[in-house]
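Lecture 7 notes: from sequence to structure.
We start with the chain below.
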Amino acid sequence: MRCTLGVDIGTSSSKGVLVAEDGTILASATRSHEVDRPHTGWVEMDGRVWWDEFVQIARELLGPSTGSGTHERIQVTAVGVSGMGPCILLTDERDEPVRPAILYGVDTRATAQIARLTGELGDDEITRVGGSTLTSQAGGPKIAWIADEEPNAWARARRLFMPASWLARKLTGAYVLDHQSASQVSPLYDIEGEQWHDPWWQRYAGTLEQPPLAWAGDIAGTVTAGAAEVTGIPVGTPVIAGTIDAWTEAVSVGAHGIGDLMLMYGTTMFLVATGEETLRTPSMWTTAGAFPGTRNLAGGLSTSGALTAWLKELTTADYPQLLAEAEASGPGARGLVMLPYFAGERTPIQDPDARGVIAGLTLRHGRGDLYRAALEATALGVRHNVETMRAAGADIRRIVAVGGGTQGRLWLQTVSDATGLAQQVPQTTIGASYGAAFLAASATAPAEAQPRIDDWNPVAETITPDPGARAAYDALFDRYLRLYDATKDVVHELAAEQHTH
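Predicted structure tokens for the same chain:
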């Protein structure tokens, strides 16, 4: 049976799937891992783990290596890769990492570099060239941080990778980065020209070799003999360039058309709205799309599943218990409102020194109320992002939910109730690894037999908002916004103290 292999490197795990030509998942494998947080505001990971886990997943899915890449009559025809991002992994001339990879916007270490680059280049000019102001999500300041703070590592650095491009390099030897990922290495990418902005690259990353650019579904190269021996994937198997996981998740559910909004429920929450125009707003991220001719307005909450996992660990209760108690608590969590900024916040407030706040606590509140408040906090964060996107001109016509969090009906319903928006839930919500497998299938199928994601992954359910909950959530959203403004000064003082530990 002919199939494609899709692998995604996520924040808390790596996932792989073998997918048949009709979209059926034949097998899946997961490897859990943890990120490192050596200091407050730092989130990083050893990039070598990405390749190690890819090899483990490939071997598990393909069975004992025979050199043929077949197992029980399965033939891998193409490989799709994906990963969290934007991450900054710098390597030396032998492709050995010079330091751990600095992760996306949850890593907030580069505040001084953001201020310096903005002062040197000008906010208006940065926005004109790259589409977005510089925030903790931008890759350019993270590169500048390494140059400023770790000169020994910087002196050895020669190439720039993200998880997907690192896997493509290890599999094929190709040095390539997709346009979508490159557009998040702001301010080093020209979004209208769809190319590296050479003057700023030379100024801030001049010792690094520029990765040639491709689109997510383009073939980066084919599996080398060395990679085949390690992974069991046949020599010569095509490998796509791939892209950042949120965009690959959008592909996995067909939410990359004009007017689509993808909501990714995971360790963090991510939103990607797709259009044709380059929309610019200081509170969101403007990026190239996964495909030619598209642009995205994107946003992300720094905590979502991470927040509920923290509560689970804190209370020692299991998820079924917490969900049952949260359901009994009801809308409004019996008079609680929570700010979900436990790891700072990305969009739309762009405040790395924001922190979690729980208001209204009494001795009568229990863990179910806290869990309900956490679900509602992420739902209100989604509403804040959606309203900001629409104010910037985004035409959002259809919302599709994806990711591990879609398995929890209460969370989905809370988001729909808080936002007033229906969400389509597809049949398969495994996420980016499935999207990577689809991109690989599309890249290698003949023109007359191109797969359609609607056939691979049809809509299974639509979550509609409860009109009776609207007034309660409107009032809660107003309190949510006012609570941040009212506590911001004190919270920033506390964050400053935390940075000293």
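Points to note: The two ends are 55 Å apart (CA to CA). The domain at 254-427+466-501 is CATH 3.30.420.40 (Nucleotidyltransferase; domain 5).
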